[in-house]
Amino acid sequence: MTKPDPLHLDVTIRRSDHDGSRDAHFQVPARDNQTILDVVSWIQQYADPTLSYRFACRVGMCGSCAMMVNGEPRWACRTHVKKVLNGSKVHIAPLRNLPVIKDLVVDMDPFFDKWGQAEGRHHPTQTRDDPVPRIDPEGAQRAEANAGIECINCSVCYAACDTVAGNPEYLGPAALQRAWTVFNDGKNADRQAILDAVSGSSGCHNCHSMGSCTHYCPNDLNPMQAITGLKRETVKAFIRGKSNA
Amino acid sequence: MGPEQNIKRHDTDILILGTGGAGLFAALHAQQSAPPDTKITIAVKGLLGKCGCTRMVQGGYNVALGPGDTVERHFMDTIEGGKWLPNQQMAWRLCEEAVVRVQELENEIGCFFDRNPDGTLHHKAFAGQTADRTVHKGDLTGIEIINRLMEQVLSRPIERLQEHRAIGLIPTRDGAALAGVLMIDMRTGSFRFVRAKTVLMATGGGPSMYKYHTPSGDKTMDGLAMALRAGLPLRDMEMVQFHPTGLLAGDHSRMTGTVLEEGLRGAGGQLISHARQRFMFDHDDRGERATRDVVSRGIYAEMRKNNNPEQEGVFISMAHLGPENVRRKFKGMVQRCADSGFDLAAGLVEVVPTAHYFMGGVVVDVDTHTALEGLYVAGEDAGGAHGSNRLGGNGVANSTVYGGVCGDTMGADIRKMGTLRDPDEDKLAAEVERACHPLSRKATVVQPLRQKLQEAMWEDVGVLRTRTGMERGLKRIAEISGELMDLGVSPENLAFNLTWHDWLNMRSLCDVSEVIAKAALERENSRGAHFREDFPEAGELDASYFTVAQQSAGVVKMERHAVDFSIVRPGETILPEGEPETLVIST
User: Fold this and answer.
1) What is the ipTM of this complex?
2) Contact A25/B474 with Cβ under 8 angstroms?
């Protein structure tokens, strides 16, 4: 990895439109402080105005720009080219496991539909007229809820997951991690509803604990551990005879 | 066949533009307050909840829930921070309703803000405030708020038009009301006209016409540009807030301009000049810990002294605090810098002031009504609540409070409204033609012109302003604006065609840049974010005025309107007698 810096990057981009897919090659000037987002931006701004990609925040907060870089899911905005360059080469493709809209832009709706199917939202027990509840920030249950709370729903784990690739119905790591977070939130109304939502044929028991989700999470979260928690709780609920799974 | 021949027509009852704190709250409140069969549609330039800037809030949310704090105290800080220019009724409602909105976020939406060891809400201190008032989720408050709001909106029967950018507010033929909004479905490149009885515009300002800017890449002042064309009055348009420490990573990098957090200076971070010397104490007794506007001006002045083209900005240095300590305390920031090749913990990172927030916006009343029936504005697109400067932590309070207010207002108003209104078809056709303008010209690159505009605004209408500079700036804007009209985009494939949108972004930015420069010329004193080197004094507070810009027949006209001190006059306070000036224990 001590090769001299190239003057140009040899960039291959998987492009798709209604006519199908093909690889396109571009020579991009190499710069200091250059991210994958800067590379695709340069191509669109100076080489091929029709190249499509998606980004918003530029700093790893919005989770809009994930793409496959040399076959691995990554945030484009926070991936320095030096980290991924293969000699002077890099291959960029749309995120795996989601339908492609055009070029590097995927449709994230299926990912969010599953987030909803997993009951990944708060179910209130109080209203805006009630005071903010006192909650021990160090309590065991709260710590479990906090573990996955910083997920920005970027879909990197979803793209990394071979189980999703094999079973498109599978809810996937992000939605399940969110369900686990809500399950452990003491303010949430109905824990059983969450277990019901994640224990069906598309639920947590599909997971083979291969761990790609945890390996690739750019925020160092551990969806696999959350899924393990859900597996444990759904089995416990089943044994208690409460589950209708 | 060109796209102009084919406009898809679409009807709804309540239309919301934008999915930041204002748009998402408006959707939820509208659903709660409107009659049960009301159709609600939310349209956004990017993905729902992912684009825009509420998500990027690091600091937190100002709310008078801390020990000893009151709505009155929050209000006084907001007025003093805005240098007596805020609309006092709006500022009051902001502070008052922030309380219920934070409770709603925790109890109904499901946010979890940081707690004290005893389980009560943690309130942190933020510059310019007299109480520890800012509730937060670590330094990722915006992500928590938007993720939770997004989940709630996605689970409800609210129609989504994602990657639909609004390009024109289309009135009725008699001009008395808004009929609907023209959009481009970015995924297909086709036009869509959406009729609605009420429309909230919450596209979120975003002064990205400056060389260095913090807002997300989708933000290009489209909302204010549409409002300008619709002839609506815009206030405080000279008020651009700069954050002192934006990352400088070169003009080829999207990272450039993004914020290095306030807390770095608070913790003892030092600013170092090109001559390797600290300079902030030459400008202010508080040194690096002075307020954002003061530090931004200090850095800008320092930058002007330097002739070395290799180094444009100044440096922030943290290493004296112990690299390990810095790595631990500012993990996210250190990692972010490392990802773009900089060592924040042990090295020097080059920084510049960066355009952050736009205080100016559409003139609205406290219920978010505008001068045009059927149109409502909330969040950063609305002017008035912050006056000449926004307190850190009042931005997300403003968008969520007024988004909710707007949802309630639209839900109530719609009960009194009859059928959908028909658009002025000539205006609709004119807006389509405007958007298609580049498609019949010779295709070339757009980005160099964007950089030219950003240079002009930075140099001539930036942190430190003079009449000479701004008159030159106006000339440059006009030239760039003209050049844009000669610049073409290939019409071959308009599906997700970012270059066409770059052109449209530039159109919005040029139009609003002109207004910023004109408003800044109109204000012949220095208040808050606006600093005139040729008029450095604040002027008589009792005679405070705010600027109003309005476009008619293609010409922008400026007026000065007296501030209505309807709650408190300069020199007075609404705090009870004997209240301490500040509740913050100084360190």
Assistant:
1) 0.96
2) no
